[in-house]
Amino acid sequence: MSGDGLLVAVDSPVHRVPAQVKLVALFVFVLAVVSTPAAIFWAFGLYAVMLVAAVAVAKLPATVVSRRLAVETPFIVFALLLPFVATGPQVDVLGLHLSQSGVLGAWNVLAKGTLGVIAAILLSATTAPRDLLAGLERLRLPATLVAILSFMVRYLSVVSDDLHRMRVARESRGYTGGRVGHLKAVAGGVGALFVRSFERGERVHLAMRSRGYTGRMPLLSVSGATRAQWFEGLAISLAAVTIAVAARVVSL
Prior knowledge:
Order of helices and strands: EEHHHHHEEHHHHHH
Number of domains: 2
Radius of gyration: 23 Å
Largest sheet: 2 strands, antiparallel
Number of strands: 4
Strand content: 5-15%
Strand order of the largest sheet: 1-2
Mean pLDDT: 85
Oligomer: single chain
């Protein structure tokens, strides 16, 4: 198994689904999860089972998924504070006086946030960045936005390398960090990085114009998805929509 950025490069049925199908599936799944009433707990259990099954089919290691879930930490902290700061009727839990609405709100944030993040991890771990851009192009995203995103993906690593070299140069001159007096040096480095990146962008644009660039990038993908691939890729999302509708009916 090898990795390319966020991609976990293994051969699985999920990896072979076209990117545009997975993008639509992610959108529909998240929409179904968000629209589910927080008090219908069984629905979230079914969503979790479907995601775990998709992760298993995609052959993603549990350590990769759990490590990337760390991006959710700020939302977890916010959710844990809700029962203490929300108003309304109180309930005793292990000797703590918690707000009933706060407890339900914390569950709502944790459940929906975690399911959404896992679904996004599944997409990023099974789709190469270029395939994602091609999928957005197939979904008729404006060509200008696709070009901007493609340059961002290409030059993000270049800017990161510049930042690393600047940090090494700073430390080789005695910079240790941690003191307020060094904020000026850090701010100067950020400014220099911005100017360097802006000038690089100007040079790249001039080079593209000299090679015949007219404002539209070449197509990243010329092949679409078959009907079978759409059905396969949207299976979980359509099931999630069915669960969301059932949960809405039950909550009435």
